[in-house]
Specification:
442 residues, alpha+beta, 6-stranded antiparallel sheet
Protein backbone atom coordinates (compact mmCIF):
# COMPACT_ATOMS: atom_id res chain seq x y z
CA UNK A 1 0.00 0.00 0.00
CA UNK A 2 2.66 2.53 1.05
CA UNK A 3 5.83 3.03 -1.01
CA UNK A 4 8.05 2.97 2.08
CA UNK A 5 8.08 0.76 5.14
CA UNK A 6 8.75 1.92 8.69
CA UNK A 7 12.47 1.14 8.54
CA UNK A 8 12.91 3.11 5.32
CA UNK A 9 11.23 6.15 6.85
CA UNK A 10 13.45 5.86 9.92
CA UNK A 11 16.53 5.62 7.68
CA UNK A 12 15.50 8.81 5.90
CA UNK A 13 14.98 10.50 9.24
CA UNK A 14 18.42 9.55 10.53
CA UNK A 15 19.98 10.64 7.24
CA UNK A 16 18.41 14.09 7.52
CA UNK A 17 19.38 14.48 11.18
CA UNK A 18 22.98 13.45 10.40
CA UNK A 19 23.13 15.98 7.59
CA UNK A 20 21.78 18.71 9.87
CA UNK A 21 24.53 18.00 12.41
CA UNK A 22 27.23 17.95 9.71
CA UNK A 23 26.02 21.29 8.32
CA UNK A 24 26.16 23.02 11.68
CA UNK A 25 22.85 22.50 13.46
CA UNK A 26 23.11 22.21 17.23
CA UNK A 27 19.78 20.33 17.33
CA UNK A 28 17.17 19.15 14.86
CA UNK A 29 13.83 17.36 14.58
CA UNK A 30 12.06 15.81 11.65
CA UNK A 31 8.62 14.63 10.56
CA UNK A 32 8.29 12.28 7.61
CA UNK A 33 4.83 11.27 6.44
CA UNK A 34 3.18 9.36 3.64
CA UNK A 35 -0.54 9.14 2.87
CA UNK A 36 -2.78 7.39 0.36
CA UNK A 37 -6.47 8.03 -0.09
CA UNK A 38 -9.54 7.75 -2.29
CA UNK A 39 -12.64 9.94 -2.42
CA UNK A 40 -15.74 9.12 -4.45
CA UNK A 41 -18.81 11.35 -4.68
CA UNK A 42 -22.14 10.24 -6.16
CA UNK A 43 -25.09 12.55 -6.88
CA UNK A 44 -28.43 11.54 -8.39
CA UNK A 45 -26.89 8.09 -8.94
CA UNK A 46 -24.21 9.53 -11.22
CA UNK A 47 -20.53 9.67 -10.39
CA UNK A 48 -19.76 13.32 -9.72
CA UNK A 49 -16.20 13.18 -8.46
CA UNK A 50 -13.39 10.63 -8.10
CA UNK A 51 -10.15 11.61 -6.47
CA UNK A 52 -7.05 9.60 -5.67
CA UNK A 53 -4.60 11.18 -3.28
CA UNK A 54 -1.01 10.14 -2.78
CA UNK A 55 1.28 12.41 -0.83
CA UNK A 56 4.56 12.39 1.05
CA UNK A 57 6.42 15.03 2.96
CA UNK A 58 9.67 15.50 4.83
CA UNK A 59 9.69 18.47 7.23
CA UNK A 60 12.83 19.35 9.14
CA UNK A 61 13.34 21.93 11.87
CA UNK A 62 16.89 22.87 12.79
CA UNK A 63 18.29 24.96 15.62
CA UNK A 64 21.48 26.99 15.62
CA UNK A 65 21.67 27.75 19.29
CA UNK A 66 18.10 28.85 19.87
CA UNK A 67 17.52 30.26 16.41
CA UNK A 68 15.09 28.14 14.44
CA UNK A 69 14.67 27.31 10.76
CA UNK A 70 12.19 25.01 9.04
CA UNK A 71 11.93 23.63 5.51
CA UNK A 72 10.12 20.81 3.75
CA UNK A 73 10.23 18.71 0.61
CA UNK A 74 8.22 16.01 -1.11
CA UNK A 75 11.37 14.47 -2.61
CA UNK A 76 12.96 11.72 -0.53
CA UNK A 77 16.19 11.43 -2.55
CA UNK A 78 19.51 11.95 -0.77
CA UNK A 79 20.24 15.11 -2.78
CA UNK A 80 16.84 16.59 -1.94
CA UNK A 81 17.33 15.84 1.76
CA UNK A 82 20.71 17.61 1.71
CA UNK A 83 19.12 20.61 0.02
CA UNK A 84 16.19 20.88 2.43
CA UNK A 85 18.54 20.68 5.41
CA UNK A 86 20.64 23.49 3.92
CA UNK A 87 17.50 25.56 3.34
CA UNK A 88 16.38 25.15 6.94
CA UNK A 89 19.83 26.13 8.22
CA UNK A 90 19.93 29.21 6.02
CA UNK A 91 16.63 30.31 7.57
CA UNK A 92 17.91 29.65 11.09
CA UNK A 93 21.04 31.73 10.53
CA UNK A 94 18.88 34.76 9.72
CA UNK A 95 16.44 34.18 12.59
CA UNK A 96 16.70 35.83 15.98
CA UNK A 97 17.57 33.73 19.02
CA UNK A 98 14.54 32.75 21.09
CA UNK A 99 15.18 31.62 24.66
CA UNK A 100 12.09 29.36 24.59
CA UNK A 101 12.90 27.61 21.30
CA UNK A 102 14.33 24.11 21.17
CA UNK A 103 13.57 20.42 21.40
CA UNK A 104 11.42 18.91 24.11
CA UNK A 105 13.09 17.93 27.38
CA UNK A 106 14.64 14.47 26.74
CA UNK A 107 13.36 13.26 30.12
CA UNK A 108 9.78 13.75 28.88
CA UNK A 109 10.08 11.78 25.64
CA UNK A 110 7.96 8.66 25.18
CA UNK A 111 9.61 5.35 26.03
CA UNK A 112 6.57 3.04 26.01
CA UNK A 113 4.44 2.42 22.94
CA UNK A 114 1.28 0.34 23.15
CA UNK A 115 -1.03 -0.78 20.37
CA UNK A 116 -3.78 1.84 19.94
CA UNK A 117 -5.27 -0.12 17.01
CA UNK A 118 -5.17 2.85 14.67
CA UNK A 119 -4.59 1.19 11.29
CA UNK A 120 -7.25 -0.79 9.41
CA UNK A 121 -6.75 -0.95 5.63
CA UNK A 122 -9.88 -0.72 3.52
CA UNK A 123 -9.17 -2.37 0.19
CA UNK A 124 -11.98 -0.69 -1.70
CA UNK A 125 -12.12 -0.54 -5.49
CA UNK A 126 -13.56 2.52 -7.18
CA UNK A 127 -16.56 0.52 -8.36
CA UNK A 128 -17.22 -0.70 -4.82
CA UNK A 129 -17.01 2.86 -3.45
CA UNK A 130 -19.43 4.06 -6.13
CA UNK A 131 -21.86 1.28 -5.23
CA UNK A 132 -21.74 2.23 -1.54
CA UNK A 133 -22.41 5.86 -2.44
CA UNK A 134 -25.38 4.89 -4.61
CA UNK A 135 -26.86 2.67 -1.89
CA UNK A 136 -26.57 5.52 0.62
CA UNK A 137 -28.30 7.99 -1.67
CA UNK A 138 -31.06 5.57 -2.72
CA UNK A 139 -31.89 4.84 0.92
CA UNK A 140 -32.24 8.57 1.61
CA UNK A 141 -34.47 9.21 -1.41
CA UNK A 142 -36.77 6.29 -0.49
CA UNK A 143 -37.68 7.67 2.93
CA UNK A 144 -40.27 10.23 1.82
CA UNK A 145 -41.40 11.83 -1.43
CA UNK A 146 -40.64 15.23 0.10
CA UNK A 147 -36.95 14.42 -0.30
CA UNK A 148 -36.79 16.33 -3.56
CA UNK A 149 -33.09 16.61 -4.24
CA UNK A 150 -29.70 15.49 -3.01
CA UNK A 151 -26.26 16.96 -2.54
CA UNK A 152 -25.00 13.43 -2.95
CA UNK A 153 -23.20 10.75 -1.00
CA UNK A 154 -19.47 10.56 -0.39
CA UNK A 155 -17.21 7.61 0.40
CA UNK A 156 -13.71 8.38 1.59
CA UNK A 157 -10.82 6.19 2.66
CA UNK A 158 -7.46 7.49 3.92
CA UNK A 159 -4.34 5.69 5.15
CA UNK A 160 -1.25 7.38 6.54
CA UNK A 161 2.05 6.68 8.26
CA UNK A 162 4.70 8.91 9.77
CA UNK A 163 7.77 9.10 11.92
CA UNK A 164 8.95 11.78 14.30
CA UNK A 165 12.65 11.84 15.17
CA UNK A 166 15.02 14.29 16.81
CA UNK A 167 18.71 14.68 17.62
CA UNK A 168 18.16 13.46 21.18
CA UNK A 169 18.10 9.92 19.76
CA UNK A 170 14.33 9.74 19.70
CA UNK A 171 12.52 8.09 16.81
CA UNK A 172 8.92 6.84 16.81
CA UNK A 173 6.63 5.50 14.09
CA UNK A 174 2.87 5.43 13.81
CA UNK A 175 0.34 4.60 11.13
CA UNK A 176 -3.39 5.09 10.95
CA UNK A 177 -6.52 5.07 8.85
CA UNK A 178 -9.74 7.11 8.63
CA UNK A 179 -12.76 5.97 6.62
CA UNK A 180 -16.10 7.70 6.17
CA UNK A 181 -19.48 7.58 4.43
CA UNK A 182 -21.72 10.66 4.31
CA UNK A 183 -24.93 11.82 2.69
CA UNK A 184 -26.68 15.20 2.31
CA UNK A 185 -30.21 15.66 0.97
CA UNK A 186 -32.84 18.36 0.39
CA UNK A 187 -36.47 18.17 1.49
CA UNK A 188 -39.24 20.41 0.14
CA UNK A 189 -42.87 21.15 0.95
CA UNK A 190 -45.16 24.18 0.80
CA UNK A 191 -43.14 25.87 3.57
CA UNK A 192 -39.93 25.80 1.54
CA UNK A 193 -36.74 23.77 1.35
CA UNK A 194 -34.38 22.40 3.99
CA UNK A 195 -31.07 20.58 3.87
CA UNK A 196 -29.35 18.27 6.36
CA UNK A 197 -26.86 15.39 6.42
CA UNK A 198 -25.50 12.39 8.29
CA UNK A 199 -22.23 10.50 8.29
CA UNK A 200 -20.14 7.71 9.77
CA UNK A 201 -16.42 7.98 10.50
CA UNK A 202 -14.05 5.37 11.92
CA UNK A 203 -10.55 3.97 11.79
CA UNK A 204 -11.93 0.49 11.10
CA UNK A 205 -14.36 0.19 8.16
CA UNK A 206 -16.13 -2.59 10.07
CA UNK A 207 -17.19 0.05 12.62
CA UNK A 208 -19.02 2.16 10.02
CA UNK A 209 -22.80 2.10 9.92
CA UNK A 210 -24.45 0.52 6.89
CA UNK A 211 -24.91 2.89 3.92
CA UNK A 212 -28.69 2.47 4.11
CA UNK A 213 -28.75 3.58 7.75
CA UNK A 214 -26.70 6.68 6.97
CA UNK A 215 -29.00 7.64 4.11
CA UNK A 216 -32.16 7.11 6.18
CA UNK A 217 -30.88 9.21 9.07
CA UNK A 218 -29.85 12.00 6.69
CA UNK A 219 -33.36 12.03 5.21
CA UNK A 220 -35.14 11.98 8.57
CA UNK A 221 -32.93 14.77 9.93
CA UNK A 222 -33.81 16.85 6.87
CA UNK A 223 -37.55 16.17 6.99
CA UNK A 224 -37.90 17.21 10.62
CA UNK A 225 -36.63 20.69 9.74
CA UNK A 226 -39.50 21.49 7.36
CA UNK A 227 -41.96 24.25 8.35
CA UNK A 228 -39.43 26.02 10.55
CA UNK A 229 -40.28 29.38 12.11
CA UNK A 230 -38.73 31.97 14.33
CA UNK A 231 -39.45 32.56 18.02
CA UNK A 232 -39.84 35.79 20.00
CA UNK A 233 -36.62 37.46 21.11
CA UNK A 234 -35.84 36.66 24.71
CA UNK A 235 -33.70 34.72 27.18
CA UNK A 236 -34.13 30.97 27.06
CA UNK A 237 -32.52 27.76 28.25
CA UNK A 238 -30.54 26.21 25.39
CA UNK A 239 -29.39 22.65 24.74
CA UNK A 240 -26.59 22.15 22.23
CA UNK A 241 -27.17 18.92 20.33
CA UNK A 242 -24.41 16.30 20.45
CA UNK A 243 -23.44 17.23 16.88
CA UNK A 244 -22.57 20.75 18.12
CA UNK A 245 -21.60 20.39 21.77
CA UNK A 246 -18.02 19.59 20.83
CA UNK A 247 -17.69 23.13 19.46
CA UNK A 248 -18.27 24.53 22.96
CA UNK A 249 -15.50 22.34 24.33
CA UNK A 250 -13.24 23.35 21.42
CA UNK A 251 -13.65 27.00 22.49
CA UNK A 252 -12.67 25.95 26.02
CA UNK A 253 -9.61 24.10 24.69
CA UNK A 254 -8.62 27.06 22.54
CA UNK A 255 -8.83 29.43 25.50
CA UNK A 256 -6.77 27.04 27.67
CA UNK A 257 -4.11 26.44 25.01
CA UNK A 258 -0.58 27.68 25.47
CA UNK A 259 -0.42 29.88 22.39
CA UNK A 260 -3.43 31.94 23.46
CA UNK A 261 -2.34 32.02 27.10
CA UNK A 262 1.21 33.29 26.68
CA UNK A 263 0.01 35.93 24.21
CA UNK A 264 -2.61 37.04 26.73
CA UNK A 265 -5.17 36.47 23.98
CA UNK A 266 -7.54 34.30 26.03
CA UNK A 267 -10.49 35.10 28.26
CA UNK A 268 -9.26 32.25 30.48
CA UNK A 269 -5.75 33.57 31.19
CA UNK A 270 -4.44 32.79 34.68
CA UNK A 271 -7.28 30.39 35.50
CA UNK A 272 -5.22 27.36 36.58
CA UNK A 273 -6.67 26.20 39.89
CA UNK A 274 -9.74 28.40 39.51
CA UNK A 275 -13.37 27.39 38.99
CA UNK A 276 -14.67 28.44 35.59
CA UNK A 277 -17.33 25.80 34.90
CA UNK A 278 -20.31 24.45 36.77
CA UNK A 279 -19.31 22.25 39.75
CA UNK A 280 -20.52 19.00 38.16
CA UNK A 281 -18.21 19.32 35.14
CA UNK A 282 -15.26 16.96 34.75
CA UNK A 283 -13.24 16.86 31.55
CA UNK A 284 -10.55 14.24 31.02
CA UNK A 285 -8.01 13.56 28.30
CA UNK A 286 -7.41 9.90 27.43
CA UNK A 287 -4.72 9.54 24.75
CA UNK A 288 -4.50 5.73 24.66
CA UNK A 289 -8.05 4.64 23.82
CA UNK A 290 -7.99 1.88 21.21
CA UNK A 291 -9.37 2.84 17.78
CA UNK A 292 -10.07 6.42 18.92
CA UNK A 293 -9.33 9.04 16.28
CA UNK A 294 -6.96 11.16 18.41
CA UNK A 295 -5.06 8.42 20.24
CA UNK A 296 -1.27 8.46 20.41
CA UNK A 297 1.55 7.55 22.80
CA UNK A 298 3.63 10.59 21.76
CA UNK A 299 2.82 14.12 20.67
CA UNK A 300 4.30 16.10 17.76
CA UNK A 301 7.51 16.64 19.75
CA UNK A 302 7.87 13.04 20.89
CA UNK A 303 6.68 13.84 24.42
CA UNK A 304 4.89 10.96 26.14
CA UNK A 305 1.14 11.39 26.48
CA UNK A 306 -0.72 10.44 29.66
CA UNK A 307 -4.36 10.26 30.76
CA UNK A 308 -5.12 13.34 32.84
CA UNK A 309 -7.90 15.48 34.27
CA UNK A 310 -8.22 18.90 32.66
CA UNK A 311 -11.35 20.11 34.50
CA UNK A 312 -12.28 18.73 37.92
CA UNK A 313 -15.53 19.80 39.59
CA UNK A 314 -15.43 22.92 37.41
CA UNK A 315 -11.84 23.81 38.34
CA UNK A 316 -9.05 24.12 35.79
CA UNK A 317 -6.45 21.44 36.60
CA UNK A 318 -4.40 21.68 33.43
CA UNK A 319 -3.70 23.65 30.26
CA UNK A 320 -2.88 22.36 26.78
CA UNK A 321 0.82 23.09 26.28
CA UNK A 322 3.66 22.35 23.89
CA UNK A 323 7.27 22.69 24.98
CA UNK A 324 7.51 26.20 23.54
CA UNK A 325 4.31 27.55 25.10
CA UNK A 326 5.16 25.85 28.39
CA UNK A 327 8.53 27.61 28.51
CA UNK A 328 6.83 30.90 27.71
CA UNK A 329 4.57 30.35 30.73
CA UNK A 330 7.27 28.95 33.01
CA UNK A 331 5.55 25.57 33.04
CA UNK A 332 6.04 22.01 31.73
CA UNK A 333 4.61 20.69 28.46
CA UNK A 334 1.41 18.67 28.80
CA UNK A 335 2.14 16.57 25.70
CA UNK A 336 -0.24 18.53 23.50
CA UNK A 337 2.11 19.69 20.76
CA UNK A 338 0.04 19.04 17.66
CA UNK A 339 -3.35 18.87 19.35
CA UNK A 340 -5.64 17.40 21.97
CA UNK A 341 -6.06 13.66 22.55
CA UNK A 342 -9.58 12.25 23.11
CA UNK A 343 -11.51 14.47 25.52
CA UNK A 344 -14.31 12.95 27.60
CA UNK A 345 -17.03 15.01 29.32
CA UNK A 346 -19.00 13.42 32.15
CA UNK A 347 -22.80 13.40 32.04
CA UNK A 348 -25.75 14.15 34.31
CA UNK A 349 -28.50 12.50 32.23
CA UNK A 350 -28.54 9.24 30.30
CA UNK A 351 -30.17 10.56 27.12
CA UNK A 352 -30.98 13.77 25.34
CA UNK A 353 -34.68 13.02 25.87
CA UNK A 354 -34.08 13.09 29.63
CA UNK A 355 -32.21 16.37 29.27
CA UNK A 356 -35.15 17.87 27.33
CA UNK A 357 -37.59 16.67 29.98
CA UNK A 358 -35.49 18.26 32.71
CA UNK A 359 -35.28 21.54 30.79
CA UNK A 360 -39.01 21.58 30.09
CA UNK A 361 -39.13 24.71 27.90
CA UNK A 362 -36.36 26.13 25.77
CA UNK A 363 -34.36 25.73 22.60
CA UNK A 364 -32.59 22.67 21.19
CA UNK A 365 -29.90 23.92 18.79
CA UNK A 366 -28.94 21.55 15.97
CA UNK A 367 -27.17 23.92 13.57
CA UNK A 368 -24.82 26.85 14.01
CA UNK A 369 -23.85 29.43 11.38
CA UNK A 370 -21.19 32.10 11.24
CA UNK A 371 -17.97 32.56 13.20
CA UNK A 372 -19.05 35.06 15.87
CA UNK A 373 -16.85 33.76 18.68
CA UNK A 374 -14.15 35.94 20.27
CA UNK A 375 -11.83 33.89 22.48
CA UNK A 376 -10.08 37.04 23.71
CA UNK A 377 -13.22 38.50 25.29
CA UNK A 378 -15.43 35.41 25.39
CA UNK A 379 -18.19 37.09 23.37
CA UNK A 380 -20.38 34.52 21.59
CA UNK A 381 -22.95 35.26 18.87
CA UNK A 382 -23.93 32.86 16.11
CA UNK A 383 -26.78 32.17 13.76
CA UNK A 384 -28.68 29.05 14.72
CA UNK A 385 -31.47 26.63 13.89
CA UNK A 386 -33.07 23.81 15.82
CA UNK A 387 -36.30 23.03 17.67
CA UNK A 388 -38.51 24.70 20.23
CA UNK A 389 -39.13 22.51 23.29
CA UNK A 390 -42.41 22.56 25.23
CA UNK A 391 -43.15 20.25 28.17
CA UNK A 392 -39.89 18.46 27.53
CA UNK A 393 -40.59 17.43 23.92
CA UNK A 394 -40.03 18.94 20.48
CA UNK A 395 -42.89 21.30 19.55
CA UNK A 396 -41.74 22.63 16.16
CA UNK A 397 -38.58 23.44 14.15
CA UNK A 398 -36.95 26.84 14.57
CA UNK A 399 -34.89 28.85 12.08
CA UNK A 400 -33.80 32.41 11.42
CA UNK A 401 -32.49 33.10 14.94
CA UNK A 402 -29.25 34.21 16.58
CA UNK A 403 -28.03 32.98 19.96
CA UNK A 404 -25.69 35.11 22.06
CA UNK A 405 -23.93 35.17 25.43
CA UNK A 406 -20.41 35.16 26.86
CA UNK A 407 -18.49 31.91 26.97
CA UNK A 408 -17.64 32.65 30.61
CA UNK A 409 -21.34 32.70 31.46
CA UNK A 410 -22.11 29.69 29.28
CA UNK A 411 -19.47 27.54 30.97
CA UNK A 412 -20.54 28.62 34.44
CA UNK A 413 -24.17 28.07 33.43
CA UNK A 414 -23.81 24.48 32.23
CA UNK A 415 -26.74 22.71 33.89
CA UNK A 416 -26.18 19.21 32.56
CA UNK A 417 -25.04 16.93 29.77
CA UNK A 418 -26.40 13.75 28.22
CA UNK A 419 -24.56 10.47 27.77
CA UNK A 420 -25.19 10.55 24.02
CA UNK A 421 -21.82 11.46 22.52
CA UNK A 422 -21.47 10.61 18.85
CA UNK A 423 -19.82 7.26 18.23
CA UNK A 424 -17.84 8.79 15.37
CA UNK A 425 -16.57 11.96 17.03
CA UNK A 426 -12.96 12.50 18.04
CA UNK A 427 -14.01 13.71 21.48
CA UNK A 428 -16.84 12.18 23.52
CA UNK A 429 -19.01 15.18 24.33
CA UNK A 430 -22.76 14.65 24.75
CA UNK A 431 -25.57 17.19 24.41
CA UNK A 432 -24.96 20.17 26.72
CA UNK A 433 -27.64 22.20 28.54
CA UNK A 434 -26.91 25.92 29.17
CA UNK A 435 -29.16 27.68 31.69
CA UNK A 436 -29.77 30.90 29.73
CA UNK A 437 -28.81 32.60 26.47
CA UNK A 438 -30.14 35.58 24.56
CA UNK A 439 -32.06 34.45 21.49
CA UNK A 440 -32.75 37.06 18.82
CA UNK A 441 -35.81 36.03 16.82
CA UNK A 442 -38.86 37.91 15.60
Amino acid sequence: MFHHDAEQLKRLGHLALDQAKKQGATAAEIDISESIGQNVQVRQQDVEHIEYQQDKSLDITVYVGQAKGRASTGDFSDDAINEVVSAALNIARFTAQDSCAGLADPALLATKFGDIESFFPWVLSTDEAIEIGKRTEVAALKVDNRISNTDGAEVQSDHYQYIYANSNDFCAYQKGSRHSISCSVVAEDTSGMQRDYWYALARDPQDLAQPEEIGEIAAKRTLRRLSGRSIPTGKYAVIFDRTLSGSLVSHLVGALSGGALYRQASFLSDTLGKQILAPWVNLTENPHVKKALASTYFDAEGVATHPRTVIEAGYVRGYFLSSYSARKLGMTTTGNAGGVHNLFLNHTHATQAELLQAMGTGLLVTELMGQGVNTITGDYSRGAAGFWIENGVIAYPVEGITIASRLQDMFAGMVGAADDALQYSTHKIGSIWIDSMIVAGN
